[in-house]
Amino acid sequence: MLWEIAVSGVTDADWQSLVLDSESPVLVEFWAPWCGPCRMIHPIIDELAKQYAGKLKCYKVNTDESPSVATRYGIRSIPTVIIFKNGEKKDAVIGAVPKSTLTTSIEKFL
């Protein structure tokens, strides 16, 4: 049986501990409930979380609820997916992109 891995939300409050202090690379999707393309990319992020379980942590940031994190990383359009490693922003993919685009980006940092 495959474990259901739900992608957790991150807020301004737990950003440091969950993302920047993480031992493994972290993929973060910046999204908002009113964003159509975000809904298209959600299932892809969920698949990636399962595919890379144990190697990569995946989180979602609701930019409406946690605007300071979004502002800090200059998020201008959503969805934006950012990959962090050792607390640093390593790569960013903007827009609803195919899974292969995100996989290519992830593989560079594992």
Automatic annotation (TrEMBL):
Q: Which keywords does UniProt give here?
A: Disulfide bond, Electron transport, Redox-active center, Transit peptide, Transport
Q: Which GO terms describe its molecular function?
A: enzyme activator activity; protein-disulfide reductase activity
Disulfide connectivity for this sequence is C35-C38
CDD domains given in the database record:
TRX_family
> InterPro entries attached here?
Thioredoxin, Thioredoxin-like_sf, Thioredoxin_CS, Thioredoxin_domain
Q: What are the transmembrane regions?
A: none
Which residues belong to any copy of the Thioredoxin domain? 1-110
The similarity comment for this entry is:
Belongs to the thioredoxin family.
Q: What is this protein called?
A: Thioredoxin
Query: From what organism does this protein derive?
Result: Juglans regia
Q: What gene is this protein translated from?
A: LOC109012933
